[in-house]
Amino acid sequence: MKAAPQAQQRLIDLQELDSSLDRLAHRRRTLPELAEVARLEERLTELRDAIVAAETAVGDLEREQKKAEQDVDQVRTRAERDQRRLDSGMVTAARDLTNLQSEIASLQRRQSDLEEVVLEIMERREEADAQVARLRSEQATAQQELEALAARRDTGFQKIDEEAGTTSAARTAVAKDVPADLLALYEKLRGQHGGVGAAVLHRGSCQGCRLTLNTADLNRIRAAADDEVVRCEECRRILVRTAESGL
């Protein structure tokens, strides 16, 4: 492949701009805020699930408490009815009086047991309500942190995107100075070699793979015409010759 020395020199300018764009893209992908945003989003998802579970538990306890209170009311009503019968003097037979008094005592014990159940459920419900409140507080704090982090992330994105836009415009201008066939080869090699398609030959060393060329390769390059596009025999990148190439 042939290309004017000036066009080959422009490859180095193009490579520097492309490397800058690669670094900017890497910075964009690895902003510290991205990991924190992902962590908080995951935590918020966990909190939402935990809140649903806690609120479901509160709802279950509300129904359980309501049922227990209804049981207390039923026993209390029956005991009050029996007490009224006892107090009315309508029951006079000794055996009936004994049975009625025994039933009232039994109902009172039953009522006491059921009231203990209600109190125990109320305590559990208070704990469940407190858990919901704690989770909602943590959720609010995490949401505020997420919004602040997202704002910093977006600011970082904006700065990087602005710099990338300026660099891309400069790249477009430089690429116009490179012949189409040379540009195509450069792009192909960039894709094959980690983003570096062209490198300077500096004092006998390829600055792409950082290896020193052997004497035979240097002699071959030394004998090549100025407009010949030469390649590194080690990494196959385009080698751009300069006054510092050591030829």
Automatic annotation (TrEMBL):
It comes from the Bacteria. InterPro entries: CT398_CC_hairpin, Oxidative_Scav/Glycosyltrans, Zf-RING_7. Pfam families: CT398_CC, Zn_ribbon_9. Residues 14-194 form the CT398-like coiled coil hairpin domain. Residues 63-85 are annotated as: Disordered. Residues 205-239 form the C4-type zinc ribbon domain. This is C4-type zinc ribbon domain-containing protein. It comes from Actinomadura namibiensis.
